[in-house]
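Incident review: delayed structure delivery

Summary: a single-chain prediction request sat in the queue longer than the usual turnaround. Root cause was a stuck worker, restarted by the on-call engineer. No data loss occurred. The affected request and its eventual output are reproduced below so the record is complete for anyone auditing the incident later.

Affected input:
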Amino acid sequence: MRPSDDAAPHARIPADVDTPDKIVYGLTARQLAILAVAAVLGYGLVRSVGTLLPQPVLIAVLTPLAGAAIVLAMGRRDGLSMDAWLLSAVRHARAPKRLAPAAAGQPAAAPAWAPAAETPIAMVPVLRLPATAISATGVVDAGSHAVALVACTTVNIGLRTGDEQAALIGSYGRWLNSLSGPVQIVISAQRVDLSSHAHRIAEGAETIANPALAGAARDYAGFLDDLAARRDPLWRTVTVAVTAGGDKGRDTEVLRRAEHAASALSALGAQTAVLDGGRAAAVLTCATDPYTPADVTWARALPDAAITGAGD
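Output delivered after worker restart:
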């Protein structure tokens, strides 16, 4: 039996952290607003036609109104409040149900989010991404704010003792409490490009002078090729996107926050690195097509960099 001082740490996390605050009688501000509007409508109806209609008729008119208000305020469906669900239903009903190509000779108009074209030609719309530029230092310009990427490895906490787990969780919690801006942690699984790795090993084997070592390298390259053909190996990547706003000095500030995040996470035993421009571009490139094997360990050219090559 595990000793008491080596017990696994437990932390109670409330399940209703996203529940709206109750204002009066256990009702939220949204529910009170709906009931208040219904009460005003009912009062106006009574004041306008209350003396003209018999009381049973007036009650028959007010009862559906009160019932609809209560259902709208208290009801829920598919995890949404009834008013939000009805609003989504109205938007869905008004949205087009089928997308079809334009008729012959009638080019389709580009959507509102697509860049404006000089000539009205049928084309595939170009997606306008939030990022507009990537600097050599790795700062991604997202318009209203700057973003820096931190790559880190995972930490196996299950094999640690209870005291070590408590220390790791405490260090991670202190980093979360020290954040002064939005941070996004992305954990994804990507395909491992074993074929390219095997090709590099086979090319390196040709430069090995020792025949035994060269043969071992070729066998290893063949093993990787066979593994890539029979399996679909995946590897897990963790990327932390740190942000900073403002008009002045935000590039320096976001890099400072990225270095702080890298230092805090490295204290947990993870290997961390603040990505420069080329590696940040590689990560974003692979994120757009996660099903294509890609190697992010070598840097890509920045979007505004000129690509040159040897002349003929």
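Verification: DSSP finds eight helices and ten strands in the chain.
Action items: add queue-age alerting; document worker restart procedure.
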